[in-house]
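Design job #97: recover the sequence.
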């Protein structure tokens, strides 16, 4: 399944679940969940999730470089490039519920409890969708 399908299926599916089981749709949480549904494919070189993470790593490295440590910024970029290109296989560890939990934890630390929960749900939705539909 490609990224537009993951975005649409996750957003529509979770919005329906929110509407029928939680009494209303929280658009911000649906957006977080839908974007999180792109993240498992960060193990694929052409995936949108990979592009989002590449941009986040670059922004983090620039921020750290301006904060004073060019060496740490260089190591972050080198580590991400080497790790994501040589040690990750498509539909490997990133397509697991353990990775969904870790991703949810990361978002929890960054954005709070509800965002972390719905990020983990969106990430998990991607794994389920890959298992249910014809995949790329
Ligand atoms: Zn996938």
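Job complete. Output follows.
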């Amino acid at each position: 399944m490609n990224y537009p399908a993951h975005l649409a299926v996750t957003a529509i599916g979770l919005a329906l679940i929110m509407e029928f089981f939680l009494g209303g749709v929280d658009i911000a949480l649906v957006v977080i969940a839908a974007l999180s549904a792109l993240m498992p494919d960060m193990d694929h070189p052409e995936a949108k999730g990979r592009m989002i993470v590449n941009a986040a790593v670059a922004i983090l490295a620039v921020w750290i470089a301006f904060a004073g440590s060019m060496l740490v910024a260089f190591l972050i970029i080198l580590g991400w490039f080497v790790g994501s290109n040589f040690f990750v296989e498509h539909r490997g560890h990133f397509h697991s519920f353990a990775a969904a939990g870790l991703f949810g934890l990361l978002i929890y630390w960054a954005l709070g409890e509800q965002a972390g929960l719905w990020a983990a749900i969106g990430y998990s939705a991607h794994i389920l969708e890959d298992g249910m539909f014809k995949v790329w």
